[in-house]
From TrEMBL:
Residues that bind substrate: D19, F20, N21, R37, H60, L61, G62, R63, R119, R152
Gene name as annotated: pgk
Pfam families, per the entry: PGK
Biological processes per GO annotation: gluconeogenesis; glycolytic process
Protein name: Phosphoglycerate kinase
Residues at which ATP binds: K202, E320, G346, G347, D348, T349
Pathway annotation from the record: Carbohydrate degradation; glycolysis; pyruvate from D-glyceraldehyde 3-phosphate: step 2/5
Keyword terms, alphabetized: ATP-binding, Cytoplasm, Glycolysis, Kinase, Nucleotide-binding, Transferase
GO cellular component entries: cytosol
Amino acid sequence: MKFLRDFNFYNKRVLVRADFNVSFGDDGRVDDKEDWRLKATLPTINYLLNQKAKIILLAHLGRPEGKIIENLRLNPIAQRLEELLGRPVIKLDDCLGREVEERLKALQKGEIILLENIRFYPGEKNNQEDFIRGLAKLGEIYVNDAFGTSHRAHASFVGLPKYLPSCAGLLLEKEVKVLSTLLEKPEHPLTVIIGGVKISTKIKMIKNFLDKADDLILGGALANTVIGAKGLAIGKSIVEEEMVEEVQKLELTNIKLHIPVDVVVSVDSSGQAPSRVAPVGNTQKEEMILDIGPDTIELFKRIISQAKIIIWNGPMGLFETEKFTQGTKEIAKAIAQSSAFSLVGGGDTVNCLSQLSLTEKISHISTGGGAMLQFLAGEKLPGIEALK
Ligand code: 3PG
């Protein structure tokens, strides 16, 4: 795999695939709590600016499935990038076509263009050859700096390297370095904390770390499937029935595996109805598990305090409802206070740290959610493989 330092970018049109998939505030802008993925790409953009390259940014937002969706246009991203870089970022309303080509031909050294949401084109997801060729015409060198989307075998990841000299940007390089070290030579005790909703998307990582980690903590709705698989009552909690059998095959009695010992339950997830703390297994028929309980928080905090490496992905409760954010917040604070090397990834998880102003206290915030999980499960990422 090649890196930025292997190329001379002077006066070259450089296509940079970035991951700017962020949420917007109520005012439709990207604020300083949501711009972490933009900030993470600045080193690569600045490196290319120093080399007097002509920069063309490619990015997606949401999942428009090949159609133009007005509120998924990238204008607020261009605006925030301009603020962060302190120089103009010209946003075009398209990705391809004669007008785009003409504009890019006239591009000056040090200019930055952001093309429209690349997922407005079906060719991106379907990896269509004519779409890839159209994109490749726009640049002379391709840089992948979008670690967070490198698990997708889409045109802007696996297609462009077939046509253009290619390399990894500084963010992608750093992510791969940090994650590979943790995966291959972790210090011990290694504590892995996995939350969120779907155990199906995290089962491979769980299996991998049940072997490698010293402690594997499960929280959030995905722990319900484990609790249910152990034959304990979960009432009306979110559960992935189809995963129960697979979860039962895990070594559920392994002492490394920690699931909640008590939980916060309520009949209503909006936070309007009363809630109570119940020992795990004591959830009534109409109730749902919505957060981890105080004893669980203490147990998890104790484990975190002893760790040398902490990996965290996924909230411990229903983070969208303020009443059920306690568990996630306490875990976030415990990780931030720990002297261990901490790696945190996943949109909701990083947003939680951001809201608590704790991002500075984390050793490495990964820009990958799904990508980080796939990497840590020991799988290959198509976007990274394509660069090799
Ligand atoms: C993410 O937000 O994890 C990445 O941008 C990938 O987005 P996707 O899951 O829609 O492919």
